[in-house]
Design a protein that fits this description.
It is built from one helix and nine strands. It has 133 residues and is α+β, with helices and mostly antiparallel strands. Strands 2, 3, 5, 6 and 8 form a five-stranded antiparallel β-sheet that branches. A four-stranded antiparallel β-sheet has the order 1-9-4-7, with no helix packed on it. A hairpin with a 5-residue loop joins β5 and β6.
Length: 133
């Protein structure tokens, strides 16, 4: 029968490894560079979101949370605003909850979304989320 000191000596490294592994999995659950920003929008033709800054390469998206014209289309343009301002790309989505405009593999920098629609006199009101992962 093993002595209690021997058992304790053998279990200590195992317990330490398990504790470190658990701590590592908790800290890596959400990337440290992930950013989410919820915005409210009201616009008739064009509207710019607040800027979102990234420190590493990743995907940037705009997700509509709610909108008062769910059957109307809107454009979501991604623009880089640090250094030379230039348009990355544009997506057309419906202005309804859950619609996403995603732009994969973007370099680090500062970006903004430009929400647009046909200037037909209607005003779009709603909320959306800018996110970087």
């Amino acid at each position: 029968m093993p002595r209690s000191r021997t058992v304790r000596r053998r279990l200590t490294p195992v317990a330490g490894t398990a504790l470190c592994g658990a701590a590592l999995s908790v800290t890596q659950a959400a990337p440290a560079h992930a950013t989410t920003q919820t915005v409210s929008f009201t616009y008739q033709h064009l509207w710019l979101t607040p800027e979102i800054s990234t420190r590493v390469r990743g995907a940037i998206s705009f997700i509509v949370q709610k909108c008062d014209h769910p059957n109307q289309k809107m454009t979501v343009l991604l623009r880089r605003t640090d250094g030379f301002n230039y348009d990355i790309g544009s997506r057309t989505i419906y202005c309804r909850a859950g619609q996403r405009a995603a732009f994969a593999d973007q370099p680090k920098g500062t970006f903004e979304f430009e929400l647009g629609k046909l200037d037909d006199g209607k005003v779009f009101k709603g909320t959306g989320t800018s996110s970087f992962t």
